[in-house]
Amino acid sequence: MTRPFWNLLLVLGLVLISCQKKRNELDIKITNQKTGYGYQIIKNKKTLISQPYIPAIPGEQVFKDSLQARRTADLVIKKIGKSSFPRISVDELDSMKIEYEIQKLQ
Predict the structure, then answer these.
(1) Residue extents of the structural domains in the chain
(2) Per-residue pLDDT band at 103 (split at 50, 70, 90)
(3) CA distance 36 to 26
(4) In what side-by-side order are the strands of the sheet with 26-32?
(5) CA distances from 36 to 31, 67, 70, 91 (A)
(6) Beta bridge pairs of residue 65
(7) Where are the alpha helices (DSSP H) in 41-102?
(8) pLDDT at residue 33, as a whole number
(9) Closest among 96, 73, 76 to 84, alpha carbons compared
């Protein structure tokens, strides 16, 4: 009775290990800019992406608060995790309620 128990425990342990997702090694660092926030995506203590400004928006507009920067960085990490190009669109910014100003053409 003891041997089958240990065999079952070993098999269950191997199954759990093999089914476990790899740990996402990407971290987010929110950066302070002169008038707002940006973000960095860090992998193994090295900066993979440095985004001081809101992506997809012309000009150099910073995020109004750290939560907006964090939401955008979370989406970038999600896209990287899906092996997708981490490009952010204006529609995605709008859906996350990221605040930005539309530059008027002169």
Answers:
(1) 22-95
(2) confident
(3) 23
(4) 26-32, 37-43, 46-51
(5) 9, 11, 13, 21
(6) none
(7) 66-81, 90-95
(8) 96
(9) 76
Cα–Cα distance for residue pair 31/41, rounded to 1 Å: 11
Please list the helix, strand and coil fractions of the chain in percent, rounded to the nearest 5, in that order.
40, 20, 40
Which residue is it, tokens 């750290």?
A: 66
pLDDT at 105: 67
Which two three-digit tokens encode residue 57? 């928006």
Contact 74, 39 (CB under 8 A): no
Q: What is the pTM of this model?
A: 0.74
Cβ(75)–Cβ(96) under 8 Å? yes
Q: How far apart are CA 34 and CA 45, in angstroms?
A: 24
